[in-house]
Amino acid sequence: MSVLTAEPDADPAGEEPPDTGERHRLTAVTGLAALSLDAMASVAYGPEAIVLVLAAAGTHGLGFTLPVTLAIAGLLAVLVASYRQVIAAFPDGGGSYAVAKRHLGARTSLVAAASLVLDYVLNVAVAVTAGVAALTSAFPELYADRLWLCLAVLVLITGVNLRGIVESAKAFIVPTVVFVGSILVLISVGLFRSAPVSTATAEGHASVLADNATTVGALLLLKAFASGCSALTGVEAIANAVPSFRTPRGKRAQHAEVALGAVLGVMLIGLSVLISRFHLQPVEGVTALAQLADASLGHNWAFYVIQFATMILLALSANTSFGGLPVLLKLLARDNYLPHVFALKADRQVHRHGVLALALVSAALLVFSGGDTNTLVPLFAIGVFVGFTIAQVGMVRHWRQAGAPRKALLNGFGGLLTGISAVVVTATKFEEGAWLIVVALPLLVLAFETVHRAYSRIGERLGLGRTPQAPHRDRSVVIVPVSSLSRLTSEALTAAASLGDEVRAVTVCYPDPEDRAALYALELGWRQWNPGVPLVRLNSEHRSLGRPIAAYVREVAVAEPATRVTVLIPETEPERWWQRILQNQRGAVVAHAVRRDTDAVICRLRFRLRFRLR
């Protein structure tokens, strides 16, 4: 009697335990580098978005920069607290999709998933174009080649992510640390300045500040709040990618989420304080962050360090999408809303198909926009607010069911704010291109539901979930297409004899004299060889190979209905990949015709060619 025992993690001899893939997963630190670049880089355009809106009200309007930023920071705190709870409640990842699926129904969860997919794809395109725009600003001679530069950056990021999320995290730790450290130094030094050290960056540039506007209305403040909320994109990425963390996954992901909220909040508030302290006024062609670096540190090497760090981090912030979207696609595939190929993992815990799909769609967007950031920005951040709102509403129901009304009130307040932001952003940017998102969102949901119905029909036909009939043996006939005598023919007939009760070789004959001569030679050689298998001649008036064989298979199936018919197609597999172009593809033609016109089983025999080395 045998006894099964569990193996220990490591034997006494000191051998290492088997690799469970944990070393290819994220820690809290590497998770922050891999999944927070989008949120971190948003400080380069979030405060500026607020300033540009408030500039319509003149100098008086700019005085509301800090209050609006504090409101956004408050919303950030609510979102971080909410997504910490989402991580704990949904350790398999998925963020707002997982929350909505459990508490708000399938249709709402698909809306959340579609909004996240759109946001992730747009984030890649916007991040890459923004980074390249910063590069072409420093080197104007590269402006004409900006599209190729965008595609090159996209290829680089895709290649790094195909090596694994841990590899991408390691590659991006240094740029993240440099950027965050530079911004914190800028803020710290600026707080001790009573006046700007330098204004050389803004000199010679036209101001966009309105001269005759002094009234600040509620609508303007709402618009500034909604525009500034673009700095919150990426906050949900960690909750979406919880399975990418090492165990204990939930705890590590929560620590990364809190660290992201703290660092992002400090940078947003600090930069807004400096904007008010230095009375910064927006000008054309110069970012607010560049003006702040100039004012705090002076127009020297430190200024250029911040500019280059910003440029690099903006380009690399696309990595947030490569960390979060493949996990979301895996969950959708697991729930039969996307092709199951997206649920497959390659080595190093990589969802390779999700990474490649994201890269291809992003490349198409880059080509569509011509590498121009302004073409894509109006489409950005709408989807993430829809996802935020759905997640908050779902967590309200979660807390009500759990009997925690205070937490439900907090999430309800956050959902109200993000819902208002979603409406305001969509309304204000509708004519600038946001209508595309309004159209794309329901189309994507429709695509998810179409895939789900297809899988449901397939499952019904396969009888998934039901006990099938007991297997039994049928009489079988194996049909082997042949065109000449060779070792491949012998191998095919040997394999066919092993598979079925009866083997028949078939060859297609054409009326041309040359083909008639080849058929005569084949039949003569067949009689001399005498393999014990009949050779059936199939006459064809047209130069067709697959149709005559498929017609013969149908005839056999009709004449012998209780017989299982198998078509074994012999093919050679070359030693080198490039030698495949030398093949005639006859096997593929036959397989396609038989698959299309019959219910026969198709078996393709691969005969591998191996050449001896001299």
UniProtKB/TrEMBL annotation:
It is found in: Membrane. Residues 1-23 are annotated as: Disordered. It holds the Pfam family AA_permease_2. InterPro entries: AA/rel_permease1, APC_K+_Transporter. The chain crosses the membrane at residues 68-90, 110-135, 147-166, 172-192, 258-281, 301-329, 350-370, 376-396, 408-427, 433-451. Its main location: membrane. It is a multi-pass membrane protein. Residues 8-19 have a biased composition (Acidic residues). It comes from the Bacteria. Keywords: Membrane, Transmembrane, Transmembrane helix. This is APC family permease. It comes from Streptomyces cinnabarinus.
